[in-house]
Amino acid sequence: MECSTKGNIDITGCRVSLYPMTDNFSEVILGSFDKVDTRAVWSQTDLFSTLYRGEQESVIDATQALFMSAYQSDVHMVTELTFSKGCPGDSDADRYINGKKEKPNQEELPDDFPVKCKYSFYSFGEKDYMEEIATIVEMASEMGLNPQSAHYVTLLEGTASQLFVYFERALQYAHEHLNHYVLEATVSVNSPSEK
Amino acid sequence: MECSTKGNIDITGCRVSLYPMTDNFSEVILGSFDKVDTRAVWSQTDLFSTLYRGEQESVIDATQALFMSAYQSDVHMVTELTFSKGCPGDSDADRYINGKKEKPNQEELPDDFPVKCKYSFYSFGEKDYMEEIATIVEMASEMGLNPQSAHYVTLLEGTASQLFVYFERALQYAHEHLNHYVLEATVSVNSPSEK
């Protein structure tokens, strides 16, 4: 589970699932694929998600581009993101690594828009994992994302761009301090429950 | 994050989010709420999810009823489930506990239907967490759910009823052997990608 063969490699991955709540969901999802520059990541789409694997900065860049490209101002959409790194069973395969940490999508991103997010940060094999979670949440507070505690998740609010800057900082911290971690986030736009 | 105040209480929770990919998503979601008998759980709905908290059997029962009641044979729907128990910061509040492990929805469930599932089982503060994951996945194999390894998740296939029987067995094992765990599952029905 979570990995297939033994290894110990510096690969970040993200599973991105888009759920546009419209009859035209297929068009929205497929249309966003074409707008992502995937030259700096390995990518694959399965029944559930599109998976990007490679250097952390490049994986976040591709994830942000896919999410923001699927946004439609009149469609309620939820996106599920699973960032993961350091699984003891990960394999040195299915990745693009060239040491350049490229972000080819940052110049051509769509206009920014407001988002709500729930997320959980998980760290494995650490006795003091609750302290690491607190550190990660504190970073959201410093960035003005107004983290609110709820059962099993932390809630954030801001814009799409702010959220991905936060993900990059949080995952950079995790990369420097932790061996195996997962950030599970659910991002909602245009929910009728907000009105 | 994941919890608000200190405590050490035997409360299972599940966050259930329904994503029916149709223009009528609100009707599908709201219609399913009315069909769940919530007498054996504490429940609350926020922007992202409906949250059930209480005894493990009762929480799984309510979760299954909400998911199965939202099923429509002509609608692609994805459901996100976060089962969690044992967070060191959980509070002895927002729960229904009477020691009876009631499952009031089992007699009136809708007809069964095929599902695909991706899921990850997370155990915290344990050095041998990878072995616990392997045990949980082996249980899916014994139940005929054909677990397949993929990056960051395990894939399952079966019917809705089979899947929830598995969740109950897996979480029962976790309850007996682990302190703090999360089962994150995404269930898909009627995906056009399957055709």
Automatic annotation (TrEMBL), chains A, B:
Classification via InterPro entries: MTH1187/YkoF-like, Thiamin/HMP-bd_put_YkoF
One Pfam family per UniProt: Ykof
Domain Thiamin/hydroxymethyl pyrimidine-binding YkoF putative residue range list: 11-90, 115-194
Protein name, entry field: YkoF family thiamine/hydroxymethylpyrimidine-binding protein
Biological source species: Lactococcus nasutitermitis
